[in-house]
């Protein structure tokens, strides 16, 4: 278990929150699956623990929103269980750094936060995999479906594009969280249909790795570095909707190496 330093819980009531963390979900069905899993775990753990789930990237509810709700609810501690196999070192690294930043930046009294070991370190994992293999005998044999004709597609009319770098340094700096927040705001604020319209996409390395996490806004091609959730909100308001580059976060191609501004 990894402990993250937090303010003491003081007079908070007993009870532990358990957060089942998945990476992303793009449709209602996987979100409902997470809900069913959460309910089963809740029945297993009992009334002294409160089990919830969240997504670190795209999906509802978002990790940051759930963490703030758990803090305000007054649990004595929060245990985060990443449900990822394999659990990449970069994921654990950015998760720890991002939680530390939230502890620092979000006002309020935080309980102790712990991150469980990855699933592959559990001694019961081989039994689970064995049960899944044995259960295949009760499942219908898959047959190759008839190949359907491709559906027609519209060429996107949106004029703005936002690329979020997914290179190693950017992922370690929290690009997954930034991507999730951007996608959530895109949906919440209907950015595809507001103003010039906005499309978002992940990208391989965008280049300025030491300015991580990095994103780029087109058609201007503006680079933004060191972006947080607050930075995303500012870029949406000023650049995507207002047409004004956010100078405090932008980095011009000067031809010389630049340091990340604090």
TrEMBL record:
InterPro entries: CbiX-like, Thioredoxin-like_sf. Pfam families: 2Fe-2S_thioredx, CbiX. Keywords: Lyase, Metal-binding. This is NAD(P)H-dependent oxidoreductase subunit E. It comes from Kaistia terrae.
């Amino acid at each position: 278990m990894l402990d993250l330093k937090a303010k003491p819980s003081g007079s908070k009531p007993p009870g532990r929150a358990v957060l089942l963390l998945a990476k992303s979900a793009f449709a209602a069905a996987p979100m409902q699956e997470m809900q069913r899993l959460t309910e089963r775990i809740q029945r297993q753990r009992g009334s002294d623990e409160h089990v919830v789930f969240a997504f670190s990237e795209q999906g509802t509810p978002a990790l940051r929103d759930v963490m703030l709700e758990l803090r305000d609810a007054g649990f004595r501690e929060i245990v985060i269980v990443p449900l990822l196999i394999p659990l990449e070192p970069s994921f654990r690294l950015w998760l720890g750094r991002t939680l530390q930043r939230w502890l620092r930046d979000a006002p309020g009294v935080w309980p102790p936060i712990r991150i469980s070991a990855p699933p592959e370190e559990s001694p019961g994992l081989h039994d689970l995999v064995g049960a899944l293999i044995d259960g295949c005998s009760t499942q219908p044999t898959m047959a190759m479906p008839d190949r359907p004709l491709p559906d027609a597609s519209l060429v996107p009319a949106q004029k703005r594009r936002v690329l979020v770098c997914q290179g190693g340094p950017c992922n370690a700096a929290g690009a997954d969280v930034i991507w999730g927040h951007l996608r959530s705001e895109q949906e919440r604020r209907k950015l595809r249909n507001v103003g010039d319209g906005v499309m978002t996409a992940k990208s391989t390395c965008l280049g300025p790795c030491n300015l991580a996490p990095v994103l780029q806004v087109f058609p201007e091609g503006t680079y933004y570095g060191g972006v947080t959730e607050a930075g995303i909100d500012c870029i949406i308001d000023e650049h995507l909707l207002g047409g004004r580059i956010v100078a405090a976060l932008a980095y011009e191609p000067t031809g010389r190496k630049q340091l990340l501004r604090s």
